[in-house]
Amino acid sequence: MKFTLSLLMSFLIWVPTQAQDILSKSDQIISATQVVPEKDRATATVIGYDANYNQTVLRKGTGALICIANNPKSKSFSVACYHKDLDPMMARGRALRKLGKNRSEIETIRAAEAKEGTLKLPKNPSTLYVLYGKKARYDKDSKKIIDGNIRYVVYMPWATVENTGLPIAPQVPGGPWIMFPGTYRAHIMITPPSK
User: Fold this and answer.
1) Cα-to-chain-centroid distance, residue 182
2) Cα-atom radius of gyration of the chain, to the nearest Å?
3) Which of 8, 59, 148, 160 has its CA 20 to 30 A from that of 81?
4) In angstroms, how far is CA 157 from the centroid of its own chain?
5) Contact at 8 Å (CB) between 155 and 180?
6) Which of 91, 66, 92 is nearest to 81 (CA)?
């Protein structure tokens, strides 16, 4: 479970490790949106990186999805797209990280704000898509992500094992399970087996 949590958190809270070349704006947009259905790619908002490795909005979209380009300071590859109803929670995490807060501090602050009602949470199940992998990479020639694995995450704040019937670990490879049950960041994890 620690391995899964580490991968999941990599797109919520950026942890700089080793600088890589920053992709062009176009390539960041193309790669960041590859995790979602093709019909949704052109309308997604995309957050990527400028020449100084600062996160910035590369494209303001008109659709329901917000995509995050791969962090060029990370050793592993990961892009993610999430429903706009999750943006208050995700944006709050990014803002707190920018203020120098660590992962534990960010989760403590967001949990308190969620309980107080000052952090807006989705009212309906909201999906996050992740395309990741230690060997994953973006090929500039083919404009494709190679050797990536996909994960589906469906956020259901405050959901529990009891009110969903889901287990707290997958019963079969790739099977759904609930992570952080009973908390503001409770979600269903679905990770198809790696190729």
Assistant:
1) 20
2) 16
3) 160
4) 16
5) no
6) 66
| Range in 4-8, 83-87, 156-160 the model is least confident about | 4-8
Crossing angle between the packed helical segments 87-98 and 103-116, to the nearest 10 degrees: 140
> Burial code of 14-46, b = ≥16 C-beta within 10 A, e = fewer?
beeeeeeebbebebbbbbbbbbbeeebbeebbb
State residue 8's pLDDT score: 42
Report yes or no on 195 lying in a domain: no
Parallel/antiparallel/unpaired status of strands 45-49 and 65-68: parallel
- For residue 42, give the nearest of 62, 28, 22, 69 by alpha carbon: 62
pLDDT at 12 over 50: no
Q: Is 126 contained in some domain?
A: yes
At 21-80, the pLDDT tens digits run 789 999 999 999 999 999 999 999 999 999 999 999 999 999 999 999 999 998 889 999
Q: Whole-model pTM?
A: 0.86
pLDDT above 70 covers a percentage of the chain that reads 89
Does residue 30 belong to any structural domain of this protein? yes
Our CA angle for 128, 121, 13, nearest 5°, is 55
**Percent of the chain clearing pLDDT 90 (strictly above):** 85
- At 142, list the tokens: 């083919």
Inside any domain, residue 90: yes
Total domain count, the chain:
1
Instruction: Quote the domain boundaries for residue 174.
Output: 2-190
